[in-house]
Protein 1
Amino acid sequence: MGLPGEKALVYPPRPELLPAAHIPSLSHYQRMYQRSVEAPHEFWGDIAKEFYWKSQPTGPFLNYNFDVTKGKIFIEWMKGATTNICYNVLDRNVNEKKLGDKIAFYWEGNEPGDSAKITYRELLHKVCQFANVLRSQGLKKGDRVSIYLPMIVELAVAMLACARIGALHSIVFAGFSADSLCERILDCSCSLLITADAFYRGDKLVNLKQIADEAIQKCVDKGFSLKKCIVVKHLCREEVGAAGTCSKSPPQKKLCQEVQEKKTESSKRLRPKTPWNPAIDMWWHELMSGASTECEPEWCDAEDGLFILYTSGSTGKPKGVLHTTGGYMIFAATSFKYVFDYQPEDVYWCTADIGWITGHSYITYGPLANGATGVLFEGVPTYPDVGRMWSVVDKYKVTKFYTAPTAIRMLMKYGEEPVKKHSRKSLKVLGTVGEPINPEAWLWYHRVVGEERCPIVDTFWQTETGGHMLTPLPAATPTKPGSATFPFFGVVPAILNDSGQELEGEAEGFLVFKQPWPGIMRTVYGKHQQFETIYFQKFPGYYLTGDGCRRDKDGYYWITGRIDDMLNVSGHLLSTAEVESALVEHPAVAEAAVVSHPHPLKGECLYCFVTLREGYELSQDLTDELKKQGSNRQMLGSRQGEHR
Ligand code: WTA
């Protein structure tokens, strides 16, 4: 993404961060980096000692094969060691580190004024209670649980409770459609679904339970009966008192009444009551009342599965990326600590949804492992106005802020005034993730939002990598707008040409990684063959990212975008095959071809070409229907303030 005119721009680290910084210079980074790649077992072994392990590895600290020509691909970090990630991010902080009274999350609802907070001790108790609930429902280690919730505290509670009992969570972003949820439930045959009654995203009501019910019915049609569904009463939580962890607040009560009133007026979609199937549905608050706040964790092998998270696949079906316990834990924790230069007094806010990998690693596991205070935001950047982000920053005195280029580009449209209306003086580090950031957006973020005093960390990584791969470190790396700069600890990038040769110096080609880092995915759930084919077949001995990349004369890496049939719309990956197969399911469509096209705000957008069957004619209605059909397999809306 480097523009010729921008090449000269280099932003040195800001001196004010240096005194307390974990990594205060480029040479310090280089020394640590060298050790991390030359002696990974020592480097990560030292880090692992900071965590609680019930028992130590029984074999080598790292064992792997990256070369398909030499046999099965596998990656094992600390195999045989036992631990529990929930214990490490909660109990260890409460008991050993005495952080019980520290705020784990400030929860900021969609509606300004609707907020709550939860301490580490309270979070631990809620998680133990829900872990006990899960066990009482017969859940055990290795079972899969689908979680389809908005950005509420119960989402973090549910995922951590799964981790506590060794069940694998599969979180499905609450903007996904019934088809997408059904597909994900079926793929990993979940024993249980956790969802909520409804929520507001901006001024749009999402009847989540109704969509979940549609998904459950679709599963039944395909021969799979979900056995249990736990429902959080979120929107109408006033009715059950202070359900979950959220405060009773007047705005929230108003919303709940609105839902009831709107129903009596016009919309048939809005139901006064949550649709209910007594055979499988259970209320969260009823199960939680009386559940014990103590729960012995399940001690898991470092290589036991922790979660599955689906990401678009070029085959047209989403892939269930599987992450395991030990390696993911130390990688998410360490990257969070260094990339945001985490300090104990920080208030950290990542605007992503927990339904994406960014939320898994950098809202839940990474920050909590460090004992950080985070903001959990239910809303969108444009509601009630386009200054919402900065009003939340001021409200909680956010120091480290992490968002997506698409959100920055969207806010740029509204000019500087909505930003400057708010102080933002608490901000220290600004992060971006999800897609290449164009230098113009980078410079606006730096100049307007960060007032030229906040370093920008442009973090390149993937669902598959579990954590940051290429990224600046705030007090160490001179940055160039649009470049994700250098590799994180343990990461060895290379650029290959078409025939698989490694290119040296200034070069452009396929971005690959040469050796495993602890957070790398271990397989595609239930489809190991696919894992090998997608990531290791093309260039034996390397992990293939699917991204193009350029290295400049100073060794800086610049991601140039996907080089497969995936495209990145507003920071979310889509595959052209996925949309094509959704389109041809429509009776009017004989053939469909989908291509990517640059878009000023979303980065890329879709152009869909269809050939209609005999007897159909293109009309506005049919176009609208096809647009709906195309997005059916995908999302109902994104959280970056745009709806697709
Ligand atoms: C793209 C998101 C350029 C890239 C964490 C990658 C980026 C895909 C950046 C993964 C960045 C992510 N610069 N491109 N800083 N971050 N990407 O799995 O194409 O949702 O392969 O993970 O997003 O998207 P995913």
Protein 2
Amino acid sequence: MAALGDIQVTVLKGVGHALAGTLAKLGIHSLQDLLFHLPHRYEDRTRIIPMGSLRVGDVGVVEGEVVKNDVVMGRRRSMQVTLRDDSGFLVLRFFHFNAAQKGQLAIGTRVRCYGEVRAGRAGYELYHPEYEANPEPMAAAGSATLTPVYPLTEGIQQPRVRSLCRQALSYLQRYPIRELLPPEMLADYQLPDISAAVALVHAPPASANVPQLLAGKHPAQQRLVMEELLAHQLSLLKVRQQIQQRQALALLPQGALVAQFLDNLPFSLTAAQKHVLADIRQDLSQPLPMLRLVQGDVGSGKTVVAALAALQAISGGGQVALMAPTEILAEQHYNSFRQWLEPLGIRTAWLSGKVKGRARTEALDQVASGDAVIAIGTHALFQQDVAFHRLALVIVDEQQRFGVHQRLALREKGVSGTLAPHQLIMTATPIPRTLAMSAYADLDTSVIDELPPGRKPIETIAVPDGRREDIIDRVRKACEQGRQAYWVCTLIEESEALQCQAAEVTAQDLQERLPGLRIGLVHGRLKAAEKAEVMTAFKTGELDLLVATTVIEVGVDVPNASLIIIENPERLGLAQLHQLRGRVGRGHEASFCVLMYHPPLSQNGKARLQVLRDSQDGFVIAEKDLEIRGPGEVLGTRQTGLMQFRLAEFERDKGWIEVVRELAPAVLADSGRTEGLIRRWLGERIQYGDV
Ligand code: ADP
Ligand code: MG
């Protein structure tokens, strides 16, 4: 028997070559693909809402009699039509209209319309609602159903998708969708079977619970949500499984090198660092590739943990690659590692995108021959022409800045034959637990949950930019006392050029007002050598004030800096602000962070800055960020690839995440189900699954 997945959409009426092409852009080829193109919301046209009960933001159907129809002037000319029902009034406003419409909506006409309520000039208004004059009576109460709304792409309209899905549904009887969830799972959670769930979601019967459907909580929807979350979980677990089918070098720690390293450190490790290192040491000594995520809040001391992991790999005879997301951070790591490891006779190579010509050839040779046992750089490390001699450990710092695809792709490097490198992934973005469970299902996790001793809390204040003069004065005083400060210029991310320009102007302006201070400037458009020079000067105390763009957001470590001014913090996410603020508070001095906002702040803007003032705990801040802005933003925009669900919504559905995590291993053991689920839900997006 043919399956729904084998029947092409071209069997449907009205689907020719052109429309099939458009559907293909949505990843829809077969009838099954079409039926998994699920409505992401519903319109409730099942009942007429009394005007007197409307609130701003309500979307729905109202019906009444036209009692006034005027063309009014104002900022824009518009037609203003007042409707009345038994409970109140409502205004329809049209900025574009013609004489025929004015005639249609003449006083005394009955009108039914559908739209969103806004607070307008004349009270509650609908702008350009869909409307019908002298409508047929509504279907008897109880017989109408919700109208599904589908995601669209260019070249296809809502009614078209609705009609195609309705046609496809008629095939369901003869060609049911394959049930991929084990029967006991359905029974345990009282979930409807797949064909029933899909049918219901596309065409809810009149008897279905409307509020539940509108809230996405109907059992049919929840069944699909859970299946989708399970499919995502499985895709990551499968990646993990594939990697762990390979072997890795078992790297046994060599006490002598480590002892020497620790002796040279000016501090001793925190208990949390030791704890995490024990996890890593254990993993590395196995002949199975490590897949470990280390989460540690800003300033918790991840770099030294990375260095110790590297040391174990090197003493076990392997090479190490350390990748950082920015040139500035990569260079800083290069300097730290050289300082730490050269005394132990360990050679480090530097490979960033900006290293060119002979320097690059030399570095490549050293890495290829194994003379350099550590290679540090940006993603340039993983370009084609970089060959390692015996890569045993890959470390990725500030992982949240890389895409999921990059993370998964880099696993290819260093794979030779059946050997794969160990992987240590570090992130400072504290990710709420449920989110981590779904986004990093392929990784084991360790948390550095403690800051080094002696850190003073960073005092954070929010100040309107009208008080710029006072702030400048504060910077002057701090620097005169031998402190160092950052001044961060933010602009909307899309224009790096503008961001750099703003930083240049600010630096000039500050230099004019603060002639006594030594001011440096760093932004993304400087040459690598220039950036490095400025950063070194700041680090060694030759500069008092560093004006910067958000290029310093991650990783930069200058413990003497104790004041940071962030302009327009309202433009940034909480996690990003927390990262930026983490540039200070790294030494023993009391530190300050000034959030210099541009008034007026929105309610939401106020709430967000307040979160930052109240807390310095990255996890607390991330939870709030998750509440306010959703998972894509928390993971970093480039991380969203794996979190783009069709139906699941992180906040609403997070209850499933733990369930799915528990159930996934059993399903994974059944490769038929696993393949089917992944293909069904992730389809063409899952090429990296072949890693
Ligand atoms: P992260 O990368 O986690 O934000 P870093 O590795 O840059 O943090 O470390 C922050 C600062 O704390 C650095 O100056 C580092 O030398 C210092 N540091 C790290 N571990 C300790 C420790 N156990 N005790 C004291 N200082 C430490
Ligand atoms: Mg760091």
